[in-house]
């Protein structure tokens, strides 16, 4: 009986094990099937259509700043440098330091000893008389400036001091670089100093006037010529002769024929917001770099109505109003569109053998497929309906792993940056800044329920007082249209708004004259996008920076439930 019972129990155990095994295998197969379906059907979101439009993950990961996604602020390459910049050969890498000053001072003392001269002979007996050509005057200015501004700017070189308005005054000019700007662009200041004498008849600065006060040291303005030409030409120098935004030429027919070009025709990005323009433009420029080709670019922009008081799109804006064309020419191989088309037509008219052209009618033809193309011109045409005709679509998907957007190639216009330096200099580089986002976001209570009340005049006073010392210079970068909105802050701080500096783009300003020359003698409006550019850069130069969505309100910067 025992022998009969044993075999009867064995099949039950084996069947139970098989049942469990089959059940586990079924669960495994079902799970794999689900993941397979998800992998096939999932479409990654378009980065431009997301709430943080279009400045790449690098931009949003670099700093916690509301400027990254808000239309009231925008960043360019000099704000977040993605590649190291080497100083030009003609530019000192470290600037004028205490060590440099001491060496110059020692050299001057040796020369004075050899010449048997002393400061006494320069008029030390008369405390109201200063010899501005004395090298020790410049040494005193260099040491004074270094002590006062060394945390903010790098001094590059000085001009020989000249006489001021009074016998004890000298006007001095110098070039400098801002430490918070990651470019090597140079700016100029000139100030008036009042001198006295210290021990051993050494020069001492009794008083230093403010930004651009040393008018006698300012270089003379070059006369500007009104131009009737329709084609924009670079302006003769008014103040900043370091700007070179002339249009490069291809030269001879042979040079044109030897070149390899990537040409994007106008697409759906035209007249869209400037962030989308930049996202798409850098896609095209990045593809040209990937293909080792010269990028054909249109200098004529359409400014979205969101940046214009009229609310209407405005065509015919020059790229050089907003961006540093000289730096772009140095960082990438580019040719201006009208120059390119003229040379192309000229070649085809004068030669039987036409230029080899490959036309691409869809963004789905990837840069990788064009890598080995031998055509002289690759012409991408964007004639499909939106959003298929956006330039940035070329860089989506697999192409994003190969084409890198060259953010380092785009800097803000040097003319706009001169205004930034003027505003910062008038505050002696010693100011704090607050960014106040209002506008459409303050009105949209569904997505930003607390923003309006959190940035009300009373709320601003209460919150900013906790972060900024009383009676400090306070620059307010904002898209709030009402100038008097911040009046309550004036009872606690020295408040500065962009509109306080309207003369910097007024009819007598350098900016006005230079942009008018670019525009064929016609005046250029200081539009909303230019205001955004200047506001951005002045804000970044503040010692204490107060952000809207990190310091002033509990709302999420992209709207409710997006923190």
Automatic annotation (TrEMBL):
Gene Ontology CC: one annotated term: Golgi apparatus
Record keywords: Membrane, Transmembrane, Transmembrane helix
Keyword Cytoplasm: no
Pfam families listed in its UniProt record: DUF7074 (PF23269), DUF7075 (PF23272)
Region (Disordered): 217-242
Keyword ATP-binding: no
Basic residues bias: start-end ranges: 218-232
Sequence ranges assigned to domain DUF7075 in this UniProt record: 255-548
InterPro entries with a match to the protein in the record: DUF7074 (IPR055502), DUF7075 (IPR055503)
Stretches assigned to the DUF7074 domain: 128-213
Membrane-spanning parts: 20-42
Signal peptide boundaries: none
Matching PANTHER family: O-FUCOSYLTRANSFERASE FAMILY PROTEIN, OS07G0633600 PROTEIN
Protein name per Swiss-Prot or TrEMBL: O-fucosyltransferase family protein
